[in-house]
Amino acid sequence: MDYFAQQLINGLVLGSIYGLIAIGYTMVYGIVGMINFAHGDIFMIGGFIALISFLILVSFGLTAVPVILLIVLLVSMAITALYGWTVERIAYRPLRHSFRLAPMLSAIGMSFVLSNFSQVAQGARVKPVPPIITGGYTLHHSADGFVVRLSNVQIVVVLTTIVLLAIFTWLVARTRLGRDMRACEQDQTMAALLGVDVDRTISMTFVIGAALAAVAGMMYLLYYGQVDFFMGFVAGIKAFTAAVLGGIGSLPGAMLGGLAIGLIETFWSAYFSVEYKDVAAFSILIVVLIFMPTGLLGRPEVEKV
Amino acid sequence: MGRVSTSATDHSPPHAGFAFILKKALLSAFVALVLFSLMIGIRTEAGPTGQLTYWTRFDELAITVAIVFVGSIVIELVRRWLGPSGASELVPARVQNGLAASGRYVAPALLIFTLLVPVIFYRQRYILDLGVLVLTYVMLGWGLNVVVGLAGLLDLGYVAFYAVGAYSYALFATTFGLSFWICLPIAGILASLWGVMLGFPVLRLRGDYLAIVTLAFGEIIRLVIVNWQSLTGGPNGISSIPRPTLFGIPLTPGPNGFAAKLGIAFDPTHRLVFLFYIILAMALITNWVTIRLRGLPIGRAWEALREDEVACRALGINTTTTKLTAFATGALFGGFAGAFFATRQGFISPESFTFQESALVLAIVVLGGMGSQLGVALAALAMIGGFELFRGLEQYRMLVFGMAMVLLMIWRPRGLIGHRAPTVYLKQAHAISSDLVKEGHG
Questions:
Q1: Rounded CA gap, A246 and A256, in Å?
Q2: A177, B30, B64, B339 - which has most CB atoms within 10 Å?
Q3: Would the CB atoms of A52 and B38 count as touching at under 8 Å?
Q4: How many CB atoms lie within 10 A of CB A138?
Q5: Which residues of A touch B410 (CB under 8 A)?
Q6: Within the 253-272 window of chain A, which residues sit less than 8 Å (CB to CB) from chain B?
Q7: Is the CB of residue A300 less than 8 Å away from at least one CB of chain B?
């Protein structure tokens, strides 16, 4: 039971990270109708920028951990958001009226560009960081000596996710931008006729998605203590799985799917085999798409002639 | 999707002057400065004790930003010079027609040249080796072309079948001692079975979803190969895979070897030439089968499926068998190519079957114009040749590859050789320019 509780905690933390990435996939799919294949690599870039800014702040002699974290978070979100904007501007916007497979192929190319850019710029080796947030709480001592722990990092990850989700939900539900986004999702032509700047709204969608991916990247850095140039690929596919599982296009669904994938992966590793955890995640993707392509909270796609 | 002209902002107003260009370039340079400030300006590396250190590289940052600034001006000037219609009129219609006419002679000329390559370049092992590699990718490209180009099903996991073929041959040959020629059909059939296995569940999926599922499938196969150590040797791979024989005669230096039987001096190039002709024959068979299939009802059903799936079903075409045969045929050729790869290398490991490989083959098919046999062959030559040019810059290779893919999609989404002649026509065949070919939603 204690082992189970520990895995539950770990799974929820991992799921928060996947959920943050999955929101980017689901938002872009909702509005532009394409899979932003490079999104996983945006997450990786976010992790790298968090790492570098953290390193600089520490070498400047800053010691107050909350201040460091806040600055790193903001810097990482800002710069990664610009990456998202640039990717959309260069690789997707010119293709908006091209044939169906073009944006997908362009996105694959962009994914290669981003991951290999960071390999060239920062080297291929794994970058470790010492634990930034230490300590934690012991929740329960079981008789056989197993200890259920909730570390401070895990608390920070989950709290940050909740706060950001609250801001994000408010943004989509209450602001002008959110209304524009929902309008574009339903009917771009009509939205444009009613005075919505479609280009700008799509750009902002990418910017917000990238900012959330940057948060996920930073949380990944805090939680695992390392980043590498290749981490975006697998994390990206898993987050996409999460988005599909939750029902693509649905924002709460993405978070729900993220948590589900995080839990499934953690429990699979804990009870079956660590080696096959990625196989499990990919198999879920296939099974979900075959048996319930609309996901948990998605709307069925109408087939038009 | 919005049909209101939202792309108007892409083209600057023609009357805007130099100030506009300068402003745009400055903006681009500023964006580049922010983007690259940390990623290029700072270099991190783990020290010997595991402690992370960093140093600054502001000179490289400045150079990159300057390149973006100048590049932005150049692109804007070129765009203005070409006019608002973009690059599509870069090649005048007359020249395009001329190219189309001469296209009839390109294929035979290329074939004759390829046949003569081992004779011309007998002394240059490097070129022969490269030729074998290019032909392997030509074959893979033609195989994937059946799935992507003809049937319009975007397959991002094609490398899985390549891997299945390679591992089946390697395992059968090393465990049971079977020869290459017996294993070749087995490898193809096994890969083809896997193709059907993948095909069955994804029958209902379309477009992007299909692409992602095939990608996941390819990754699953690779991960299983990595982790199933007792069978596949895991990351260490399988080594000492037997080489192909010529009617049972090995191409080795011993007394039973090919050279000894003929009474000529042994030369390791013999085997290379032999491999060259094997893969050439296999690729040509792939091509021939594909061309023949295109004329059969099933091939026509593939092309119809690519153009419009709903109309296909309305016309009573069985989309299930159509899709399955496309997957199976593509996988069959992938399996053959995989078996050849294993016997050529003599060693295989999961390293060779990553997603990058799938993307490379897909890029070849797309560059070749999706559906054009000659286009795919030329694209494979350009792609692999281009890769060889960047051999010295190993780590920049994939970076350039990715950029090329993005630029290709923007500039010529239909591939460089954008011509797709219809297989079925009324009275007279009109070659369709690729710009006019509408893509279905398959």
A1: 6
A2: B339
A3: yes
A4: 9
A5: 91, 94-95, 106
A6: none
A7: no
First-last CA distance in chain B: 17
Max distance between CA atoms of chain A, in angstroms, equals 68
Tell me which chain A residue has its CA closest to the CA of residue B355: A233
Q: Quick check: B406 and A91 CB within 8 A?
A: yes
* Blockwise average pLDDT, block size 10, chain A, 305 residues: 88 94 91 89 95 90 87 95 94 84 88 92 86 81 80 92 90 91 89 92 94 95 90 91 86 91 92 86 84 77 56
Whether B39 sits inside 8 A of A49 (CB atoms) is yes
Q: Which one of A98, A105, A199 has the shortest CB-CB distance to B6?
A: A199
CB contact under 8 A, A293 and B204: yes
Q: Does A195 reach chain B within 8 Å, measured CB to CB?
A: no
Inspect the interface and report whether the beta carbons of B403 and A286 lie closer than 8 Å: no
Secondary structure, 3-state, chain B: CCCCCHHHHHCCCCCCCHHHHHHHHHHHHHHHHHHHHHHCCEEEEECCCCCEEEEECHHHHHHHHHHHHHHHHHHHHHHHHHCCCHHHHCCCHHHHHHHHHHHHHHHHHHHHHHHHHHHHCCCCHHHHHHHHHHHHHHHHHHHHHHHHHHCCCCCCCCHHHHHHHHHHHHHHHHHHCCCHHHHHHHHHHHHHHHHHHHHCHHHHCCHHHHHHHHHHHHHHHHHHHHHCHHHHCHHHCECCCCCCEECCEECCCCCCCHHHHHCCCCCCHHHHHHHHHHHHHHHHHHHHHHHHHHHCHHHHHHHHHHHCHHHHHHCCCCHHHHHHHHHHHHHHHHHHHHHHHHHHHCCECHHHHCHHHHHHHHHHHHHCCCCCHHHHHHHHHHHHHHHHHCHHHHHHHHHHHHHHHHHHHHHCCCCCCCEECCCCCCCCCCCEEHHHCCCCCC
DSSP, collapsed to helix, strand or coil, labels residue A273 as coil
Pick among A116, A203, A230, A294 to test the B interface (most B CBs inside 10 A):
A116
Q: How far is Cα of residue B88 from the mean position of the Cα atoms in its chain?
A: 24
Farthest CA pair distance, chain B: 80
ipTM field = 0.86
A91 touches chain B (CB under 8 A): yes
Q: Does the distance separating the beta carbons of A51 and B216 come in below 8 Å?
A: no
**Residue extents of the structural domains in chain B:** 13-84, 93-436
Residues B40-56: tens digit of each pLDDT: 988 888 877 777 888 88
Q: Output the pLDDT for position B92.
A: 59
With CB atoms and an 8 Å threshold, state whether A113 touches B209.
no
**pTM exceeds 0.90, yes or no:** no
**C-alpha distance from A24 to closest chain B C-alpha (Å):** 16
Residue keyed to tokens 């850019």:
A117
Nearest residue, CB atoms, B154 vs list A101, A127, A128: A101
Q: Which of A35, A95, A233 sits opposite B410 (nearest CB)?
A: A95
Report residues of chain B scoring pLDDT below 50.
1-12, 86-87, 432-442
B270-315: pLDDT as tens digits: 888 889 999 999 999 999 999 999 889 999 999 888 888 888 889 9
Predicted local distance difference test score (pLDDT) of residue B100: 63
CB A150 within 8 A of CB A10: no
Considering only CB atoms, which chain B residues are within 8 Å of A117? 39, 399
Closest CA to B204 of B442, B377, B368, B2: B442
Q: Do A286 and B211 touch (CB under 8 A)?
A: no
